Amino acid sequence: MMDENFYLRFENLHRGDSKTLLDKFRVYEPLVSLICSEVNKPKFLDIGCGNGEFLTFISSFGGDVIGIEKNSAYLKGENNKILLEHSDALTWLKLQDDSSFDFVSAIHVIEHLEFIYLYEMVGEIKRVLKENGIILFETPNPDNVTVATKNFYTDPTHLRLIPSSLLSFVIKDHGFSVTYKWGVNESAHVGKPTRIYDVIGGASPDYTIFGLANENAFGGKLKNLLRSPKGRSTKEMCDLFEERYQHDYSMLSKELKKIDNKNFEQNCYYRDQMFEVSKEMVRLRHAFELELSSIYKSKSWKITSPLRFVANGLRVGKRIISNAFISLKNNSMRDFFAIYIEKCRRFVMGTLGDMEKKNWNHRGLKRGAFFEKYKRMLNKAIRKKK
Q: Is pLDDT at 359 greater than 80 in this prediction?
């Protein structure tokens, strides 16, 4: 069987020291201060008070405070301001008179209770509250994904998470006029820019439900105070993350658009440069063709045609004579004459045939390979430009 000191050691490790807890309770300061200012000697009851940190916080504002704690390891006696009762909460409530308290709280208690027990306890709290009384339940928030999937189960005495909608219904079902919800105990690190981790674990880790026995208590001051929203839900964290995503996406889109415009401008510049180069190449081609045409039409070209023919014949003759000496060394005299008679015959016939076909003007001349390649390159550049 688990000894009572186990849970005391467990809470001391996980809940933090008294100063940390008192800092968390500061969120309730306006509420407690309002009750103390509106009610003469108000009575406060804290169920499952533990070491009495919340009672210590309340007592600093005045009024009578009572704490109920089932685990005797927490009890340290009593003083003039704080009274600690060692008892089961439901049993103790049933012994109290109607309309005895102005304020009843349970800080991280209801998640340890069976639902039937909780339902009956809320009914007893409603009975012992005064006409303008208020109930306060703080409990782990199942809307926080990290709490719902990990942190809640760190405490072995937790039974179940209680959605705020269920707790609100239970309170109203016992005749409370209205309920309000606050998100509490958020991390100070949650903020902008919202990270994906904030979406998972950035919502309020705990929530508080307030139930008012009278909606118009203290002239509506209590209602006006409680209906101001606090904390963040997972949906709000998702919206913040979506807002950040849209902002980052918009910034990236603008940068990409700038880069795209710059690339377009550079492409236009290079396109214009290529166009100018193409125009220059076309101009050079026309100039080159005109120059060749003028050469082919000139009298000097026509007069020197026979000389070019004779020079070409001499080059061929030189090559034939050179080859003849080599052939003479490698063949007999008879084979040598037979081979070269045949070669001479083919040469003479071929030369006479070419002379008949040529008209000795530039249109009939075959231009070199460089000229044809140059023309193909220019035509290709012009087609790409179009």
A: no
